[in-house]
Amino acid sequence: MTGISDGNRRVALVLGATGGIGGHVARRLAGRGWTVRALNRKAEEAAMREPSLQWIQGDAMSAQDVERAAVGADVIVHAVNPPGYKDWEKLVLPMLENSIAAARVGGARIVLPGTVYNYGPDTFPVLSEASPQNPVARKGAIRVEMERRLEAASEEGVSVLIVRAGDFFGPGAGNSWFSQGLVKPGKPVTSVTRPNAVGISHQWAYLPDVAETMVKLIERGNDLPSFARFHMQGFWDEGGNRMIEAIGRAVGRRPKVTAFPWWMLPLASPFVPLFRELSEMRYLWKVPVRMTNEKLVAFLGEEPSTPINEAVRATLTDLCCLSGDVLQK
Known about the structure:
One of its GO terms (cellular component) is cytoplasm. The chain is of the alpha/beta class and 329 residues long. The protein has helices at 20-31, 43-49, 63-69, 88-106, 138-154, 177-182, 207-218, 242-251, 264-268, 273-280, 283-286, 294-300, 308-318, 324-327; strands at 11-15, 35-40, 54-57, 75-78, 109-114, 126-127, 160-164, 167-169, 191-194, 202-206, 227-231, 235-237, 256-259, 290-291. 42% of the residues are buried. The model is unreliable at 1-7 and 325-329 (pLDDT under 50).
């Protein structure tokens, strides 16, 4: 990796800057004085929405586009995913290979947002960075292969940073369990759907906290090994009720709680790819699964953490789920 010079403006290429985690990381890097490039197939439109970034016309599926955008970059944030989980099997690995190739040529560090999907029940309930990765779902298998390829690339001189976190929520978290399962975007919260079994704890990750963690690690890049993995603790929903209680405090009343209709997903999966993916993740809601952050705290000193009431209110506001009267309280 090329060293990050204090005297020169640092450069990051973000793939997936219009998405949740990619957008948050890009804006935080720009706010810290980085030159942030963002590759997008509709660069002009994206630049109108987010002028603080340097938008470059191109496609993450094009090796030439990625390599061109990565020239002189210290970091490549690989946060790009096919929308709605469509064609994951065909698109995810080729896009990653393009980032690896660009990093190999230019000397950038690849930064990947990771998930808990890599793991299967054989390692539950407590997961460390070194826990065996034996996924039970297709998406998890792809995630494992992504990390395997990155680790192999690191052995050939490409520096890699992976930050794994729980289920995303927060402003910009589009295809998330919070927005697709718990509440209905664009509608006032009168009820909350509970995906987990009663009494089962769950791990969440607030997007701004994940982005802040990643940026802090990126800026400590010279202290990292060539292949680094960290787990975030995020928000631990003890007993599966704390998130619902926080939603109730945000809306000013306790919402009705209903069980998530898992039975419906297999029936609709042939027609809605998202339902198929959600159905495969059910095993993570049946038992408490927790990634520990001891390694992260030992390195950074602390894990960035927004108070849950503030995080939930910001999330519901972004989803247009709060009435004007509630927002003024």
